[in-house]
Write a structure and sequence with these properties.
Shape: elongated
Number of strands: 5
Distance between the termini: 52 Å
Number of helices: 6
Strand order of the largest sheet: 3-4-5
Radius of gyration: 22 Å
Structural class: alpha+beta
Helix content: 40-55%
Length: 204
């Protein structure tokens, strides 16, 4: 790329890469050229992951069947974006945590089996969850942190389910448990990382 296409912005991480082109024709020509070059090295592009994507936004309003892609856990697609200079909402082509990354997060929390580990204290639960959630906020919270809402809600629901199993007074009383945890958020927000970093989520 540096030798034959120095004017085209591109980036790579391991075997994932992105190249920015000005037109569809330019993208198709480059794709064919890259396929040929990789074949010389006895390699090939992934048949389904390799796609030409139209970066649709307020300035690019054309019609194209593919207007989003995933890269390094982020989903890039048209989104409502607040302009800091224009002071208005506009359509931008922006990144946020991808649905597949959110699914992986739910699986990770589920693997901890917190809901059944009633021998733990609430502080123990926080100690297990906090390093993981802090890492997710550190990486995915850089762009569109509000998109982490589903993860926050899932963690809260996990804590709620754990509390209903651990404390006899909460068994079968989801609303009562939710109200108890809401008071904890207000009075002891430092207990969980996501209680400090996010206003999103619910226990219901």
């Amino acid at each position: 790329m540096k030798r034959t296409h120095p004017d085209r912005p591109w980036c790579r991480y391991a075997d994932d890469g992105l190249v920015h082109c000005r037109t569809k024709q330019e993208a198709e020509a480059l794709k064919a050229e890259l396929q040929a070059r990789l074949a010389e090295c006895q390699l090939q592009m992934h048949p389904t992951k390799t796609r030409i994507v139209y970066c649709k936004d307020d300035k690019r309003k054309g019609a194209y069947p593919i207007v989003k892609f995933d890269f390094l856990g982020y989903e890039f697609r048209p989104r409502a974006v607040w302009g800091t200079q224009s002071k208005r909402v506009f359509c931008g082509f922006a990144p946020a945590v991808s649905p597949s990354a959110l699914k992986t997060m739910r699986s990770k929390i589920r693997e901890l089996n917190i809901r059944s580990r009633t021998q733990l204290s609430l502080a123990d639960v926080a100690q297990e969850i906090n390093p993981i959630v802090r890492g997710w906020f550190g990486y995915y919270g850089r762009y569109m942190p509000s998109a982490l809402g589903p993860m926050v809600r899932y963690v809260n629901q996990t804590v709620l389910a754990w509390a209903m199993r651990k404390f006899k007074r909460f068994r079968g009383h989801k609303i009562r448990t939710s109200q108890f945890l809401q008071r904890l958020v207000k009075d002891h927000a430092s207990l969980f990382v996501h209680w400090q970093l996010s206003k999103m989520g619910a226990f219901a």
